[in-house]
Amino acid sequence: MGNIFDIPLAEARAEMLALIREVAYAEGDFTLASGKKSKYYIDGRRVTIHQRGAVLAGVLFLEAIRDLLEEGGEPLGITGMTLGADPIITATATAAAAAGYELYPVYCRKEPKGHGAGRQLEGYLDPVKRCVVVEDTATTGASALKAAAAARAAGIEPLAVVLLVDRGEGAREAVEAAGLEFRAVFTVQDLKGE
């Protein structure tokens, strides 16, 4: 049996784009998590928890951060705000392992746990000194920046924010203003075919 993540990049991109359009994109009147109103909605979780979408997310996010894995240095973690980032974290860490890389999954709660160790971050924190923050979509970038702040508070340096789809409504500017690199697998223009 072969490596399920062994998919040519162009094929993975085309298949993921078609899947987003099929199961995650809707037009209408929506209020986004940021509070902004929008004429379209992208429910990225419907893609990243999809059995094929998870594999494609692993391939595409791994490609988006491969340079950070290959540059060496301190071990790299992958984090993001629960629930949207969780399937991306798992898929990417699994794809990385299949490709021979060490990428440590670190899950970020919205708030520190009120019992036990009281952590906001869970996962393989001990070896991680730097990380990427992932998200399915972003409008303002607030969720990704909150996860980046939680990483910093835990002594982990966030390097970049990587999105499945950039809505193009200010997230890039907010992330870059916070001193982080911004990367997106797709833009909303890709999704709309513009």
What characterizes the major β-sheet?
A: 6 strands, mixed
What's the total helix number? Answer: 7
Portion in helices: 25-40%
Approximately what portion of the residues adopt beta-strand conformation? 25-35%
How would you summarize the topology of this molecule?
Blueprint: H1 9-23, E1 25-31, E2 37-42, H2 45-48, H3 51-70, E3 76-79, H4 86-98, E4 103-108, E5 121-123, E6 130-138, H5 142-153, E7 157-166, H6 171-177, E8 181-187, H7 188-192
Parallel strand pairs: 3-4, 3-6, 6-7, 7-8
Antiparallel strand pairs: 1-2, 4-5
Helix pairs in contact: 1-3, 3-4
Describe the 3D structure.
With 194 residues, the chain is of the alpha/beta class. It has a domain at 61-192: 3-Layer(aba) Sandwich (Rossmann fold), CATH 3.40.50. It has seven helices and eight strands; from the N terminus they run αββααβαβββαβαβα. The protein has helices at residues 9-23, 45-48, 51-70, 86-98, 142-153, 171-177, 188-192, and strands at 25-31, 37-42, 76-79, 103-108, 121-123, 130-138, 157-166, 181-187. The strands form two sheets. Strands 5-4-3-6-7-8 form a six-stranded mixed beta sheet, sandwiched between helices. It has a two-stranded antiparallel sheet with strand order 1-2. α1 crosses α3 and α3 packs across α4. The radius of gyration is 16 Å and the shape is globular.
Highlighted features:
alpha/beta, six-stranded mixed β-sheet, two-stranded antiparallel ribbon, globular, Rossmann fold, 194 residues, 7 helices
